[in-house]
Specification:
mainly alpha, 2 domains, two-stranded antiparallel ribbon
C-alpha cells in the first residue's frame, strides 16, 4: 500500500482535504482533524459502490460522472419516483435506475 505525505499532495488534493475537514468540523463529527490523524492509512473494508446514496439529510454521489444520478435521486427523495422519471425522460437520460 502506498502512503502519501503532505509533500505528495497536489493543489486539488489539498483543496479536497481542506473541504472535507471543514465539512466534518461544521457537522461536529470531529473537534479537530489533523494531517497526522488522516495520514494513518488503514485498509478500508466496507466500500459501498453506488452511484448515489443518502445518510439522513446528507446526499452524496459516487463520483463526478454520477452527478446526474445524484440529482435525480435527490428529486425522487423530495418528491416521488414518477417526478424523477418524468425529468429523466425530458433529459433523455435512460441510465437512472436506483
Amino acid at each position: 500500500m502506498q502512503v502519501f505525505t503532505k509533500d505528495d499532495m497536489t493543489t486539488l488534493d489539498f483543496s479536497g482535504f481542506h473541504n472535507a475537514v471543514t465539512w466534518l468540523k461544521k457537522r461536529d463529527i470531529l473537534d479537530d482533524l489533523t494531517w497526522e490523524f488522516c495520514s494513518n492509512k488503514q485498509e478500508v473494508k466496507d466500500v459501498v459502490k453506488v452511484r448515489a446514496m443518502r445518510d439522513g439529510d446528507v446526499f452524496t454521489g459516487g463520483g463526478i460522472t454520477a452527478s446526474i444520478d445524484l440529482g435525480l435521486f435527490f428529486i425522487e427523495a423530495i418528491t416521488n419516483n414518477e417526478v424523477a422519471q418524468e425529468i429523466q425522460k425530458f433529459m433523455d437520460y435512460p441510465y437512472y435506475n436506483l
